[in-house]
């Protein structure tokens, strides 16, 4: 629940806001993770929030930066090794993250619905917001499932690179979910939500 | 919310074809396991453009080259810096960029100028590099070291002196001096470093020891044996490494004074030798101050002015101190009374943040190496603002871009 | 002599004495002043056909989404349309503007009935 009444407007990140036309609309206060820096990315910000444990956001930010650094180093190495086909290699790690998340987004989801005392796993379409959440969660889960000695940024970088190419555990997880949905498609009409 | 960002990005239009992917994954395994960067830049001829200079010899650098990058050949880099001497992150950067590039900056040029004009027959001049955290003291020193190596100086280089006080590998009671502490492994490591830096020059100069050193009843190094033998003895018999270091340095001083060789002393984090708080403990669990460590004495000795034919480049650093002693980066504060008096007539060289020209040059270099991939309009301004043109901060900021 | 049962049946059974069984009013004997909104929510099963088409396509292409671009976008469009409409419907219900007519939703009905409650 928001502490603001519903007629409050979202804060704007642009430096110059055209407020003359809407000066009578009250605006919510900006949260402290917003920034008008040109390096600010909404998706990046969201992922930082998901990485955070016990409110230690500065650590999460550091981890994501390190992830991006690892990705960049690997991609530059590939670029040097590639020789001729250099156009195919994306070095921008944020772009790679976007690609990875786009590739990992599920279309459907299984939800347990009780009918006649039996729980059925019913395929249900997911909303856009939830699909982004699931993609990022899977990426992180895959990255956290690792040896104790492996550093999270390293593993996360691998998962992102894999997913951006359309392979790896996250993509497999998504495909498995789709497969399960397909095998349970007979229950689809049980859905209520 | 995300629709804004992803509006034109269709989720399935991975522009990469499947074959390319498979090949890439296969090659990735090999790449990552070795992490080897090909050394193709080592053989390529030097590129000259607005941020690079073809002049590879630091002796020829002048005001014209300020703010430009010059390349250290991989082999020379390996010879000078394999035992340390470049910051860890800079080493990583070198590996990623597959070339060892240093920027020509005014503090290093100033130092080089002094060294070139110095009269070596006079007692040694001590130069002290000082500056705030992360401004490039170590890299300025690296630039001068490269000059020293190319101009037949024997390098007596301590990559980071506080390592001995803060994280010694092993400490033992000294056999020869009562109440002193030996750091045998660190001393041996330093001897290895000395050997890799100077083995070629030592072979050429054929320097001999002046007196006999007796290590124990059975072991001794006779007078007239070469310095390499002395060093190798120290490396092989780690127990005597500290004493070997002391012997080596006193020999070097004598040889230099006699005019047989010229020596460049470079010690990073020199103020650690005067900071009373260390992490070495004696047998009765008391902190050992640096003057009770056998390794300290030879290096204090060689920074004295009682010898000729050499130069001393020292750097004082805030992070060589421990917590609570980092208020200022000025030499008087960091060295303390004792250290300041030890060095007293010295030439201070201030290392500062980037100038406007150096900053733009660095950004161009990063762009050339594909290190910055977000080039929205105004990104330079923003980086300048966020880093305050501090080299280390800039490096940290650019990491994730 | 036996009396045939048909004779009793014609007279019927003797009624209960009301004093023996007093009337108990378990629930109040009048209608409530409100109706619940359950029936208005309607069926939630939407986009079944699109989902079927999508499943068929995915199965044919071994779950590689790249080849089912059209089906995916259609499915998502359908779901989005459905959600939007549901949201709008909820919005209009929440506004609760009472207008004359016989096709009223539960909120409007409740408003009416609050004006004309059952006598106590």
Automatic annotation (TrEMBL), chain A:
Sorted keywords for this record are: Ribonucleoprotein, Ribosomal protein
Do the record's keywords include Ribosomal protein? yes
Region: Disordered, residue numbers: 1-24
The record's listing under InterPro entries reads: Ribosomal_uS7 (IPR000235), Ribosomal_uS7_dom (IPR023798), Ribosomal_uS7_dom_sf (IPR036823)
Could you tell me which residue ranges the Small ribosomal subunit protein uS7 domain spans? 34-185
**Would the keyword Ribonucleoprotein turn up in this protein's UniProt record?**
yes
Identify the Pfam families for this entry. Answer: Ribosomal_S7
> What GO CC annotations are associated with the protein?
ribosome
Q: Which family does it belong to?
A: Belongs to the universal ribosomal protein uS7 family.
The protein's name: 28S ribosomal protein S7, mitochondrial
Task: State the organism named in the record.
Answer: Drosophila arizonae (Fruit fly)
Source taxonomy: Eukaryota, Metazoa, Ecdysozoa, Arthropoda, Hexapoda
State the encoding gene: LOC108620534
UniProtKB/TrEMBL annotation, chain B:
Tell me the Pfam families matching this sequence: DAP3
Instruction: List where in the cell it is found.
Output: Mitochondrion
Q: Does the keyword Secreted apply?
A: no
Q: Cellular component per GO? A: ribosome
**Where are its TM segments located?**
none
Q: Could you tell me which InterPro entries the record lists for this protein?
A: Ribosomal_mS29, Ribosomal_mS29_met
Q: What is its main location?
A: mitochondrion
UniProt keyword annotations, A-Z: Mitochondrion, Ribonucleoprotein, Ribosomal protein, Transit peptide
The source's domain of life comes to Eukaryota
Q: Which family does it belong to?
A: Belongs to the mitochondrion-specific ribosomal protein mS29 family.
Name of the protein in its database record? Small ribosomal subunit protein mS29
**Taxonomic classification, please?**
Eukaryota, Metazoa, Ecdysozoa, Arthropoda, Hexapoda
Annotated gene: LOC108617225
TrEMBL record, chain C:
Q: What keywords are annotated for this sequence in UniProt?
A: Disulfide bond
Q: Where is the CHCH domain?
A: 47-80
Coiled-coil positions are: none
Pfam families assigned to the protein according to its UniProt record, in alphabetical order: CHCH (PF06747)
Q: Origin, by domain of life? A: Eukaryota
Please verify whether the record's keywords include DNA-binding. Answer: no
Q: What is this protein called?
A: Uncharacterized protein LOC108616005
Its lineage opens with:
Eukaryota, Metazoa, Ecdysozoa, Arthropoda, Hexapoda
